[in-house]
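Run: sequence + guanosine-5'-monophosphate -> complex structure.
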Amino acid sequence: MDCIFCKIVKGEIPSKKVYEDEHVVAFHDINPIAPVHILTIPKKHISSLMAIEPEDKELIGHIHLGLQNVAKEMGVAESGFRVITNIGTHGQQTVFHIHYHLIGGRQLEWKA
Ligand code: 5GP
Ligand code: ZN
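>> structure
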């Protein structure tokens, strides 16, 4: 399968990792939109939130705990931040391996 995030998981494409455990890897977005912009992904290929299966429930919880670690590691746990997962066309998803953008390091606004 030709998935850039699976290649990042396997180390076939380089990335600047900030957190990794058995199930999750987090790395700097190549095109950051804020001073802190980290992508957190499961090592398992899941194409989007809409492809999550009941058997993935524990993994999804694990990702949230991983996001806490990423926020602490990036120094935004106290100031606050945002977590976003884009889905499909209207969501402007461009990479079809589920990923959670963690954005912060400045005051964010809420616009869609
Ligand atoms: P989406 O638009 O699907 O929600 O987000 C995909 C994100 O992946 C974008 O913010 C884009 O900058 C990032 N991205 C795409 N290709 C690469 C890559 O090869 N390496 C890294 N680190 N980020 C990437
Ligand atoms: Zn993948």
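>> summary
Residues 3, 5-6, 45, 97 surround zinc ion (ligand 2) (CB under 6 Å). DSSP finds two helices and five strands in the chain.
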